[in-house]
Amino acid sequence: MAVKPRIVVVGLGSIGRRHARLLARRDDLIVEWCEAEPAAIAAAQADLGPPAKIHGSFAQMLGTAPELVLIATPHAAHAAQTIAALEAGAHVFCEKPMADTLASAARMRRAAATSGRVLTFGFQLHFNPGLRRLRELVAAGSLGELVHFHCRVGSYITLVNSRSRHQSRLEGALLMDYTHQPDLLYWFLGDAPNGVFASGGQGGRLELSSRPNFIALNCDYRRSLLATIHLNYVQMPERHEYEIVGDEGWALFDFNTGRLRLGRRASASESVEEFPVERDPMYAAEHTAFLDAVAGRRPPESPPDEAIVSMQIIDAALASWRTRAWVALPPLPLA
Questions:
Q1: pLDDT in tens, 269-309
Q2: pTM of the full predicted structure?
Q3: Which domain holds residue 138?
Q4: Which of 104, 186, 269, 327 is positioned for an S-S bond with 79, CB 3.0–4.6 A?
């Protein structure tokens, strides 16, 4: 009988526990945990029951030579842990954002290329059926020549649910937490922006906040296309929407309701498509994509060369927000 590969989930916050829970449902893996905080371990055990093994030290865990490592720790730990796991010979799935700085993300990219191992990132929205349908429409040219891409997320509930409260300490946490949206720009359009102008601030009489707690990005391209991203930690209940406008039609997707509205210029008509609103299937699908990439059955869904574009956009957006000036997308660091 074939020996099942070991996957170690590193970090048992809410996202780490979701990964651990869904991975434990598979019959083709041995799932282990790595966590130094006894309270986090106890909470995970209460929710999920005991795993095959618990590692209290990241270095000790790597010494056991796991085949697969899933990083679900705070942003600042992503680069060092991912690089160490790759150098230890593991294939790595790292949660988003790629890292806390563009320079760290570039080091991860080089480490993956040197190691020959699979490195992919947790952009699970790629597996949302409504967003996949929206991408199909763009790829097929159904909306014509695109002129505007817009997405918005307003989510005070993220601050309420945050256990670490890192958003109050980490400048730009709003962009890091919602790096999905810069990533989706590239995923939808297949093109990185030329530059970014960002404006925002910290406002509202709220118990919880971040700096900034609202921001708007205007991303321009070398073609006649504008992309805008609005993010805030103010709105409750949450809003989460995507709109794409072309010269032959438009599409508007409400992520929280699963409702996709399609407008057609030629017929002056509008139609509606409905998609399931479930999060677990997206995570389970990205697990399968990672394992299939490791087995050579498909390319990685979010490899470093693509995931790093989101870090370039965030780097430019933060520089623009600080200076109140348009900032060109930065080149990738050489060292």
A1: 999 999 999 999 999 999 999 999 999 999 999 999 999 99
A2: 0.95
A3: 127-276+312-328
A4: 104
